Structure formats: structure tokens, C-alpha cells
């Protein structure tokens, strides 16, 4: 009878795992980049609909009682935290393996991405798709009537646009952008999950995640500057000036906006209204990035 219970032998489990691994081993990014090169403009349609819905939603919510979405918010944060953690585990080792090689940083920035493993290629595609899913962050802000910061919707729109446009060219520096974003989001959504579960997370943790986000912007700018100077010196680097200019503008704008938020929320040099806004951000951080990282919406949910 004991043997009947043990229906899944180690060999059976290994076979099941092999089927899962085959999904990654057979993943071909080429058809995805070809599709994206023809359809990246869909991101503009998505962004237009997104902006229309959120601002219309804010208008409809005026005079209405905020929705109690704590259970849905907890599930949302759990799902995105789990997704980001798994993605980090699957993509970070490959970046590290490149960096420890001779001239590793140069290769990580400028070598073509065609030689990445199928696993990393799969998670790069998942990264692009996740930028559409993460627009749902704003729904919690609007329906709960939390403050909607400019940085929140600006970040969502620009990351979505840049991800679609860059994936079409499979730019070399994308490995940095993808891994950094996954790593930061794994911590960020885990933090939001704890807050939505009513855990008392020390304020320095929120401050640390904000600093981590700022560090992400610094690294993003550094990677783009390195690629830019490499090309200016006449050396090969598999990324166009057009993509570099877009990346520099995007990361520079994020850095300025995050610095502004950090000073307002943590350094105390602000007006009375600013202090109230920062306090609201810290109390609303169950679901918003403005509390800790990207200040994305004054109450929830980044390159």
C-alpha cells in the first residue's frame, strides 16, 4: 500500500522537470524579435488606452468610496514578487558569468545578445510582456483613490515603450536593463507584499529600496555612457545611437524624478504640503512604488 502512494518516482519527477527545461531549451527569440519589429507600435496604442482609462477612472471615482482591495492587492504583489524572483534566479547567473570573464563588462554591454542561453532569451521576452501586465498597478491606485504621481504613470509608459522598441532590435545592453529590473522588482514587490499583509516593515527598508532604485538608474546611465563612448572611439558595440539616446534620456529623467522624491520623502526639507504628501506615501505603500522606489503612484509600484 505504501508503494501505491509513491506514484511519482524520482525518475518520473525528473522527467517532468526535463519537460519544463525543454520549454526553455527550445525557445527561439528570433520569431519574437521579428514580430516586435513589425508591431512595436502596438505599445503606443496600449499607452494611449492606459492613459485614457486611468484619468477617466479618476474622474469616475470622484465622490465615490474607495474600493477595499486588500486581498486582491496581496495576491497581486505575491504573484509579481514570485515572478520577479524566479526571473532573477534564471537571468542573473548568466550576467555574472559574463562579467567574470576577461573584458567581461565590455562583453556584457556590447556583445550581441544572439549568443545568450534560451533560458535568458525566454525571460527577456517575459520581461517585455510583464511591462503590459504591470500597468495593473495603476488600477489599484485609482480604485483605492490613492494619489497618482506623475512618476508612476510616466515610468510605466516609458518603460513599456522602450521595452517594445528595444526588443525589436535585441540590443546588447538589454541584458543589464532586464536583470537590474528583475532584481529590484523582486525586492520591491516582496516589500509591497509584506505591507499588504499588514507587517510593520521598518522605514529604513523603504529608504533602502529607494536607494536601490536610484542605483539602478546610475548603472543604467553608466552602461549607456560606456556604450556611447565605445562607439565614439570607433570600436564595435551592438547598439545603435538611437537606442542609446533613448536610454540616456529615459534613465536621466528617472534619476531626476527619484532624487526629487527621495529628498521630499526622506530628507525633511520640504513644505508642509510636501511633508503631508510624503507621509501619505509612506502610509499608502501597501501598493505603490512612490513609497519606496519608483514612486509610481504614490501608493504602488520600474527599467
Automatic annotation (TrEMBL):
Protein name, UniProt field: Elongation of very long chain fatty acids protein
Key words, A-Z: Fatty acid biosynthesis, Fatty acid metabolism, Lipid biosynthesis, Lipid metabolism, Membrane, Transferase, Transmembrane, Transmembrane helix
Stored InterPro entries: ELO_CS (IPR030457), ELO_fam (IPR002076)
Record EC number: 2.3.1.199
GO CC entries: endoplasmic reticulum membrane
Keyword match Transit peptide: no
Organism: Folsomia candida
Subcellular location: Membrane
GO BP: fatty acid elongation, monounsaturated fatty acid; fatty acid elongation, polyunsaturated fatty acid; fatty acid elongation, saturated fatty acid; sphingolipid biosynthetic process; very long-chain fatty acid biosynthetic process
Enzyme class: transferase
